Amino acid sequence: MSCLQTIADYGLRSVGVGERLLPRSDFTMCQQFTLIGSGMVWNIYFGVLALLGGFFFATALALAKNTELRLIRKPAEWFIFVFRGSPLFIQFFLAYEALAMLPRAGFPVFGITVETDWLTRAWAGALFVLFLNTSAYAAEIFYGALRSVPKGDLEAADAYGLSGWNKFRRVTWPTMLRLAWPSYTNEAIFLFHATTLVFFSGFPAFRQEGDALYYAKYFADKTFNPFIPYPIAAFYFILLTLSVITIFGFINRRLNRHLPQERRAKMRFRPQIIR
Amino acid sequence: MICYLTTGKQMLFYGSFGIVLVLLVVTAPVALLFGFSGALAARSRITPLRWVGRAYTAMVRGVPDIIFFLFVPIAMDEGIEYVRNRIKCPDWNQPVFAGNEFHVCAAAKMPLNSAPQIYHEIYGFSLAVIAFAVVFGAFAANVLYGAMQAVPRAQLETAEAYGMTQAQVTRRVLIPQMWTYALPGLSNLWMILIKATPLLFLLGIEDIVYWARELGATKSTVYAYPHPDWRVYYFLVLLVFYLVMTKLSEIVLNRINRKLSFGQATAGGEALRKADI
């Protein structure tokens, strides 16, 4: 079987397209590269969607944490504390078990039966957990940035007669993003790395359709040779990390484009590794 | 209820919290040591050693830590068995990686098949500790390397001007001063370490996640339990456990940070000085 044939068969195996049976013996390098690569679809899917949704929710949370109103501030603080203070791994398990407890048959709302089955599937359930998790982490970053928006900028906005939504959209929010961006890039990288946990926690890989690490472990378990599949997965993740850094670097440049050259916050080539 | 909560199985569940704490206590110093050597190596004057240090610190940047958690224990295990195979069975002529099998002679198994269960568990646990130490050592190396770079150049130059050798500068000036710069990173790392402990489950250790799954289920691999599916509640207990752990650490680390920044020429130290006046 040629390598092109393998790619055609297994290139989208992780989303259920192509050959159904996984190879069982005599694994070739090509098979390993293709299958692990096909698993990356899931990592990218989880990462991108959770980031996109989380970005907006995190902004809202950061604003909520920054208000004077206790009634709004406290829930936001607790939400951030719970999701940042506990391991993602446990959150996955807890969410899975909680979602699995919903009645199987679905429950009726206004005469229509609402299905609940799909919630226990990784594509929805795990995405939801990742979304909440990254929102909490990003909210803390945004909150920190919100606190360090220069007072002068806000006063200038007041002087121009900007207030409320206009002030937020034109001054506070862009400055917050600009200050938070390097840390947010770091969070994005961590989120993509965290997506590897999905299929090792409560969420089962439906029809053996898992992510990159799921297939890497499959190969490692079958061949007892960890020295090939794991480095392949690592290779894919390095590529992914580099693309994330590049894309976020572009956005960073755009966010800072109004500043004089030397005051632009440099994207550090070496990202922080701490979440 | 009391009766249920004190059964032997439940006791094992409580004991597994001890495993988590032991892992934390053992891993933290080992990882710090790894990180310290890594950071020193990355600053070394000897080029190959510097490469090793740089490679080690760069290791965790692009690659998810879970890959290392899966890779390191099995690689270590096979490495040890391979070496033992070479020593104990010199006339072993079958290929070690035979198709779908890893093949070594019985005497080279680690630990021996005949060894009691407890040795298997200890061996598995030590492999897990090594995996954690390697990964978190790399994180710590990053933090410590950054902290060493952050020590003001003038301090080191002054020491050199006094005629200290390179080793003396490192020992007497660099290392004592770097901690205040390293502490925020290291405390962050401690938090991450706490939150990484449930990954022990992936390494096949019977830790809290394992027992929560076992005991919470209606029917486990061994027993049928007299209660419906309680896994949610067991995992809730774990969640609370971790929240308490991280909150406690945060309080303690804030105190240490306060102590360390006292009298330092940093923003934190300045704030403390102003508060005192």
Structure description:
The complex is a heterodimer of chains A (275) and B (277). With 275 residues, chain A is an all-alpha fold. Chain A has a domain at 57-210 and 237-263: Orthogonal Bundle (MetI-like fold). Helices cover 65% and strands 2% of the residues of chain A. Chain A is built from 9 helices and 2 strands. In chain A, strands 1-2 form a two-stranded antiparallel sheet. In chain A, a hairpin with a 2-residue loop joins β1 and β2. In chain A, α2 crosses α5. The mean pLDDT of chain A is 85. With 277 residues, chain B is mostly helical. Chain B has a single domain (2-276), classed as MetI-like (MetI-like fold), CATH 1.10.3720.10. Helices cover 73% and strands 1% of the residues of chain B. A two-stranded antiparallel ribbon of chain B has the order 1-2. In chain B, β1 (97-98) and β2 (101-102) form a beta hairpin. Chain B is flat, with a radius of gyration of 24 Å. Chains A and B meet through α3, α4, α7, α8 and α9 of A and α3, α4, β2, α5 and α7 of B.
Brief summary of the model shown:
The complex is a heterodimer of chains A (275) and B (277). Chain A is mostly helical. Chain A contains 9 helices and 2 strands, in the order ααααββααααα.
Per-chain topology:
The complex is a heterodimer of chains A (275) and B (277).
Chain A: H1 3-10, H2 29-66, H3 70-85, H4 88-100, E1 107-109, E2 112-114, H5 122-147, H6 151-159, H7 164-194, H8 212-223, H9 229-255
Antiparallel strand pairs in A: 1-2
Helix pairs in contact in A: 1-2, 2-3, 2-5, 2-7, 2-8, 2-9, 3-5, 4-5, 5-7, 7-9, 8-9
Chain B: H1 2-5, H2 8-42, H3 47-62, H4 65-88, E1 97-98, E2 101-102, H5 117-150, H6 153-161, H7 166-196, H8 208-216, H9 231-261, H10 267-276
Antiparallel strand pairs in B: 1-2
